[in-house]
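QUALITY CONTROL LOG
STEP: pairwise intake check
CHECKER ROLE: data steward
CRITERIA: each record must contain a sequence immediately followed by its structure tokens, with no blank fields

ENTRY 1 OF 2
RESULT FIELD BELOW
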Amino acid sequence: MAIKVIAQRREVKLGKKPGMKFVMRPDLYIPIQEKKVFSEAATHSGISAGVIKAAWDAAGEVIKTWATEGHSVPLPGLGTMRFGVRSKAVEDLEDVKTNLISVRRIIFTPNVDVKDELKNTSIQITCLDEEGNVLKRVTSGDSGDVEDPDASPNPSEGGGSNPTPSTNNGDEPGEGD
């Protein structure tokens, strides 16, 4: 298996060097229906799809409750998730108000097995011109590095989050992703 990516040539008007550039985006897959996920899990586990769905629904309710209480919640076999916010920073206590929050976020941190699976999955890039004609195909030879959402943010690369849910999660203006 491989992750499919499209690199299409288009005009980029923003940035230090505007002009015609190849811009990458995931090649969108057809969404898998929830019913198929439960059916496949039933096949792999020997547990009926109905029981798996009931357990998944119950786990989902528990995850939502704990995450909205400020917990980082384990998703067994996948990683952890938590909620956070993106907000503006202010110097004065009097200026701290809820309107500083620009967006609420869901932060997922994959476990080592998921990261390893991603690291070891090749990436196939299809290069297209402006009209969508295939120019070439490339298969990855990169190091397979996987971003860590809990790592210290690097403003030049964007992103990062502080694991403490009650803070602004390290998403000060200028560090955005």
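ENTRY 2 OF 2
RESULT FIELD BELOW
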Amino acid sequence: MKVVATTRKEQGSSASRRLRRSNHVPGILYGGTDQQPTPIAIEHNPLYHALRVEAFHSSILDMELDGRSEQVLLRDVQWHPYRQQVMHIDFQRVAPDRPIHMRVPLHFRNQEVSPAVKQSAGIVGHVLTEIDITCLPKDLPGFIDVDLSSLEAGKPLHVRDIRFPEGVSPVLRSKENPVVVTVTIPGAEEAPTETAAAAAAPAKAAPAGKAAPAAKPAAKK
């Protein structure tokens, strides 16, 4: 996907307001070896429509900046609080030989034919819908495909269960393995919790603060 930008010479809040009034978006392009951040301006409407495309957020983009080509990643977008207006945008230069860290969407398929749904009538819940990955720019996928055809009730799917494309790895700590998908069986009885069991059990001791009954007086002789 392509982005057309120009270098911004004027900076500051007043210059940004004037830019927005002219239907442009102020932004910044940073990264690269020995390169300073470059203030940029992008026409608003084409950018607005591009931001509605999922791949624009997780793909290497071709930026035409003052007639020269740059490969970039979208890194941040700031929106107006209540208008459909892009207020500011950040891009990062990428180098072909340097790994990148990116958040990409998960695309789920085949859950309707899984044992969890067909045999157990389970309801599949997507705990995660995107994931952090690292790879070289040439290996960056637009999304991660997650095949749920083998999903079973009582066996949630974890990040390390996913088959990632060659050259792509999830960004995880040493023992971290987050749940991606769960299965809920409608009407399944849950084991009573300790708190519920304690509340249901009859009280064996007298309530605190209640005085013991007084001793009967001795009979007169």
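INTAKE CHECK: passed for both entries
DESCRIPTIVE NOTE, ENTRY 2: The two ends are 110 Å apart (CA to CA).
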